[in-house]
Design goal:
heterodimer; A: alpha/beta; Rossmann fold; 7-stranded mixed sheet; 12 helices; about 40% helix; about 20% strand; globular; B: alpha/beta; 5-stranded parallel sheet; two-stranded antiparallel ribbon; 9 helices; about 10% strand; Transketo_C/PFOR_II (chain A); EC 2.2.1.- (chain A); Transketolase-like_Pyr-bd (chain A); PDH/Transketolase (chain A)
């Protein structure tokens, strides 16, 4: 089993900021928009070097999404940024009509997704965003796993023509992927090959899955771990290939169990290859205040929970 | 185009709007007739838009926020050569691109619209892009007075003034009626001029069926350097067909055979008076 180590911890939103910094230097058509959360989105380096290509919208997210769609009519590649809650649920109609239905080259980049924003509590902890975004025809949905992958994904989506939802977060977590990786939209990443159970994880849960893999190994269980950084389009081939081998599945996501990655995988299994699946996800609930560690523990989103789910899945084979 | 030529054009447009709505048995008749004179002046006098070169980065942009009056837009785009008018025989029918609200599948349409309250934000974004590229193109958007209570309009109005978008011109088709009744009864937005002025816009009122006034207003934009322009066009819903004028039921009404025939007769009389 491949061992993953890290020398530092960073937040994925800083990976986004670093990606934007590079894009600012590389692509003159990239424009950044923000609804009063420049510091939270780590946009300062981009703005410092490209003040003309930054559009501060103030706290008016609906307008920001409309502006973004309008900017494409002038040939720009807008990156609309705010917290995931306000980037999706608050402006679903704007995204549906003016971005997705119009097939606009708008990148919706959303930080502070999930429970791990912590202390601010349920108003800001969106757990439904992946579902809302993946339901939109033509929308690409990406949830990278660490700083380096978020940076690479940010750069990659500028070269992709079409609407994208890019989701990342606030907590500092291990940086364990390569700094010079090439991000391929829609291509799952094999973290660790195994034979007993397939663990498909996305976002912050990938590191938890890696830890779970080590814990399972200590008990003689050989888990295959795959990072599904692109929720849509889903890499069905990678999923089916893995399940053919292992015969059971755990999905792990910082999202409501309804409508997220787990449901996307279940659809694939129902259609092509029936196999037992266990969800590691929030059980149809809102969040609350707490540290990320406290909340992940309470809502069942840790390596330990993945281990338990893996054993349940294996027992159902 | 002279005022008289524009007036003749509008009769022709009205006839076609009614024809295609009558054939499709669907459409937004009253609003299409209230805004058609505005669209006529925009496409035949104001907009630097060429159907042979629609992808030109220097073209003026027109975004119709009140997407439901798409029949007016389709008829004008056809007359400007964006597509054969015969395409409109399929209006609102199964598998047609000529859907009941504008889509980019129809050549000449910049943006899918129809969910109200979106057009002004879209136009602000496009106008910012023009400023960023130091282009001279202008952005025009047509709003309905009924959609003004959508909060996104006011977010957009703030940002247009904040970014000093004097390359942006919004037009309100103020026909004073919406699907539930008089706009003043449903959710009053008057005095709309004072509101936009307070937000930092330069505002003018025109009779939305007076070609001289419409031309003069559009020729004068930007009304003030450094400010977005707003044209409040006072219009009559159902204009040009007397039994439809200012009658709420014609918001979404489709004429019967007899009503259609009466309307054509009335438009014929109007056309003769312009001969």
């Amino acid at each position: 089993m491949k061992k993953y180590t890290f020398t530092e911890k960073k937040d994925t939103r800083s990976g986004f900021g670093a990606g934007m910094h590079e894009l600012g230097q590389q692509n003159p058509n990239v424009v950044a928009l923000c609804a009063d959360l420049v510091g939270s989105l780590k946009l300062e380096p981009f703005i410092k070097e490209n003040p003309d290509r930054f559009i501060q919208c103030g706290i008016s997210e609906a307008n920001m999404i409309g502006l973004s769609a309008g900017l494409t009519i002038g040939g720009k590649i807008p990156f609309a940024t705010t917290f995931a809650n306000f980037a999706t649920g608050r402006v679903y109609d704007q995204i549906r009509q003016s971005v997705a239905y119009s097939n606009k080259n708008v990148k919706i980049c959303a930080s502070h997704a999930g429970l791990t924003l912590g202390e601010d509590g349920a108003t800001h902890q969106i757990l439904e965003d992946l579902g809302m975004m993946k339901m939109l025809p033509g929308m690409t949905v990406i949830n990278p796993c660490d700083y380096n992958q978020t940076k690479a994904a940010t750069i990659a989506i500028a070269d992709y023509e079409g609407p994208v939802y890019l989701r990342f977060g606030r907590p500092v977590i291990p940086v364990f992927t390569d700094a010079d990786q090439k991000f391929e939209i829609g291509k799952a990443w094999m973290v660790n090959e195994g034979t007993d159970v397939s663990i498909f994880a996305t976002g912050h849960m990938v590191w938890e899955a890696i830890q779970a893999g080590e814990m399972l190994e200590a008990e003689g269980i050989n888990a295959e771990i795959i990072n599904i950084h692109t929720i849509k389009p889903l890499d069905e081939e990678a999923i089916l290939k893995s399940v053919e081998k292992t015969g059971c599945v755990v999905s792990a996501e910082e999202h409501n169990r309804i409508g997220g990655l787990g449901d996307s995988i279940a659809q694939v299994l129902v259609k092509h290859k029936l196999a037992p699946q266990e969800y590691v996800a929030v059980d149809d609930s809102f969040g609350e205040s707490g540290t990320p560690a406290q909340l992940l523990e309470k809502y069942g989103l840790t390596a330990k929970h993945i281990v338990e789910a893996a054993k349940r899945a294996i027992a159902r084979k | 185009m002279s005022e008289k030529e524009l007036a003749r054009k509008s009769v022709e447009y009205r006839r076609k709007i009614l024809k295609y709505i009558y054939q499709a048995k669907a459409g937004h008749t009253g609003g299409s007739l209230s805004c058609i004179d505005i669209l006529n002046v925009l496409y035949n006098h104001v907009l630097n838009v060429d159907s042979a070169d629609f992808s030109s980065p220097d073209r003026d942009r027109y975004i119709q926020s009140k997407g439901h009056t798409v029949e007016a837009l389709y008829v004008v785009l056809a007359s400007k050569g964006f597509f054969p008018e015969s395409d409109l025989e399929t209006l609102c029918t199964y598998q047609s691109h000529y859907i009941g609200h504008p889509t980019r599948k129809v050549r000449g349409v910049e943006q899918n619209t129809g969910a109200l309250g979106h057009g002004l934000s879209l136009s602000v974004g496009t106008a910012i892009a023009g400023k960023l590229d130091k282009k001279d193109y202008r952005v025009f958007t047509l709003l309905g007075d009924g959609e003004l209570p959508e909060g996104s309009n006011w977010e957009a109005a703030l940002s247009a003034a904040h970014y000093k978008l004097d390359n942006l011109c919004a037009i309100i088709d103020k026909n004073s009626l919406q699907i539930s009744g008089a706009t003043s009864d449903v959710c009053n937005t008057d005095p709309v001029d004072a509101k936009f002025e307070a937000f930092g816009w330069a505002v003018r009122h025109v009779d939305g069926h007076d070609f001289e006034q419409l031309k003069a207003a559009f020729d004068a934009i930007p009304f003030e350097k450094g400010k977005p322009s707003l044209v409040i066009a006072h219009t009559i819903k159902g204009k040009g067909v007397s039994y439809m004028e200012s009658q709420l039921k014609w918001h979404h009404g489709v004429p019967s055979e007899e009503q259609y025939s009466d309307a054509l007769q009335e438009l014929g009389v109007a056309e003769e008076s312009l001969a």
